[in-house]
Amino acid sequence: MDDPPASSDSSEFKSSTGGNISENEFSCHCCYDILVNPTTLTCGHNFCRHCLALWWESAHKNECPECREKWEGFPKVNILLRDATDKLFSEVVQQRRATIQANPQISRSLLAFQRYGDNLGRSRTNKHKGAGFFFSGVLTALTCVAAMVMVYHWSSSGVEQHTLLISKPVSHWTSEEVVSWLEHLGPWAQLYRDPFLRESVNGRLLLMLDDEDLLKLPYSIENQAHRRAILAELDRVKALGVKPPQNLWEYKAANAGKSLFLLYALKSSPRLTLFYLYLFDYSETFLPVLHTCCPAISHSDQSLESSFYMTQLEPNWQQWAEFLVKYLLLPYQLIAEFAWDWLAVHYWTSRFIIVNAVLMSVLEGCALWRLCTTAGIRFLPEMMWSHTWTMLSQGFVFAVLWPLVPQFVCNCFFYWALYFSPIVNIDLVVQQLMHPETQR
């Protein structure tokens, strides 16, 4: 009996046991072609390694593209399956490998995927050592900053008195407290300290003063800019009933919850926070920030006192244009510029804020670069809405819960965000710059 003719179908091969093996059994579940560098996940499904890398980069998930089961560890090439496909489909595999190597996008995705695995392996190997070293450094820095803050408060004079004025009604001020308020307006106000002391001007008399009283004896304030600055600040005192905060610590003492909220919100979402200030805290906070970061074009003869008065005026269109450009493109620069203006008052604290603003700008730039290079820009509206909703929900929870939290705990959160965010962000920036393609 003649032997049957050999099958002309090249997609089937006869195994040693007499069964037929088809190409479908060696095909990738993503591209449906012969497997190249087959990678087996914990769920049992096989994929080309470059197909898995492309899926990982676009989906931002460590899960199987077919059954959506999360894989454990870092997927490795299945050596037995790779050798089998190389023997059975050598020509097809060679052609596909040449095509893959010629594609720069696939090569970049494979490199990013492999670096992600190397990074994952290093982090597991050095987990305890790295974490211990990092947190020991954080604790050391915490001790140093705590000591600095304690020394600052112990060595500062008059801090308690100034803090008292932001909570004590102006009508109850003594003559010494009125002089303290006057001196706090600036060095120029020292010229008028003695007349206020001689006349024993207390809080009630202060509220009755007007421009004509300041011009004539016994005050004799002939400089019009000085009178305008005093009267402008006096109007704010009358409106609030107490002395308005004039530095970071006074603002924190007068608005404990708001200062903590703004500190975290400006770090996480500066654009939404500035918009919030525009809507709900325009005159007290937003206007000073805008005038500080985007000052009006001043004349050469404009004095410091008149510039103090100008911060309460409505900004012109040039200031608005400059502010909107910085608001949209460089929001953290606004924070840095505002902190720079207070460098003479808060020497070290302003430097911490400026460094943190620079680091946050770098992190935001890296995030935008990843969106552009990984074609994730199409998800930007969804990400923006998710971010907005997260900020609104967290702000609502904070507004409800912060009055119930002890002041000591609030202070711990405040100083942590103020002084230790730069330490954490330095580590994040280093990771971004060393392995930008592995950050997701």
Could you walk me through the main structural features you see in this protein, from its secondary elements to its overall organization?
The chain has 440 residues and is mainly alpha-helical. The chain folds into three domains: 13-125, 2-Layer Sandwich (Herpes Virus-1), CATH 3.30.40; 159-240, Transcription Factor, Ets-1 (DNA polymerase, domain 1, Orthogonal Bundle); 248-438, no CATH class. It is built from 22 helices and four strands. The chain has helices at 49-59, 79-88, 90-102, 104-125, 127-155, 159-165, 175-183, 193-198, 203-208, 211-215, 224-240, 248-254, 256-268, 270-280, 282-293, 304-310, 317-329, 331-341, 347-373, 380-401, 407-419, 421-434, and strands spanning 12-14, 20-22, 38-40, 46-48. A two-stranded antiparallel sheet has the order 1-2. A two-stranded antiparallel ribbon has the order 3-4. β3 (38-40) and β4 (46-48) form a beta hairpin. α12 crosses α13 (256-268). The chain is elongated, with a radius of gyration of 33 Å. Residues 173-240 form the SAM domain. InterPro entries: SAM, SAM/pointed_sf, Znf_RING, Znf_RING/FYVE/PHD, Znf_RING_CS. Keywords: Apoptosis, Endoplasmic reticulum, Glycoprotein, Membrane, Metal-binding, Transferase, Transmembrane, Transmembrane helix, Ubl conjugation, Zinc, Zinc-finger. Residues 28-68 form the RING-type domain.
